[in-house]
Amino acid sequence: MKKPLSLIFLLVLFASCTSQKNSEEFISTTQGRYLFNDNEVIEIYFKEQKLYAKWRGRTDIELLKVNDSAFYMKELNEKILFVSRPQMHIQLAEKREHKGIKYDFRKLKNGEKTPHEYFESQQFDKALDAFKMIQQRDSLNPIISQGTLNRLGYKYIKKEDFDSALEIFKINAILYPNKSNVFDSMAEAYF
């Protein structure tokens, strides 16, 4: 009980000693979208000199400033560090639970999207290219698994959005040309 209280006290003391204002340069370089995983984004923005995040459907997640480049994000239970070199990215501060693994979230370029964002905006060719890039980098990534994409196609069928179902099944067939199930699902969408 004593340890958590002292940790909270130190956090509050640390936060109160840190300037709450951020430089204009820091604001302009850190605002943007960061790739949390291959299909999920954390959006960082400032409102009235305070840092906020949009993540997993939540907006206005206020980040507690620890120092000029470090903030605590309660929803992640992590201290996030903004690192500008070699390119701007977010890095999670090391902690015992990470077991030596470093977590970096790269900043997306203007207009860059995740595969599902491309798909939702009906940019099917770009969605396919993004899925292919993930497959080349990590063929076991669950985001591009045949089953995941198949289930997504059936969700579209259930909503009677047959065009989207067909497009996701086409992508699945291109990614997995030797799997009969993807063609069976595509045939069902045509039917």
Automatic annotation (TrEMBL):
TPR repeats lie at residues 146-179. It comes from Polaribacter sejongensis. InterPro entries: TPR-like_helical_dom_sf, TPR_rpt. Keywords: Signal, TPR repeat. This is Tetratricopeptide repeat protein. Residues 1-21 form the signal peptide.
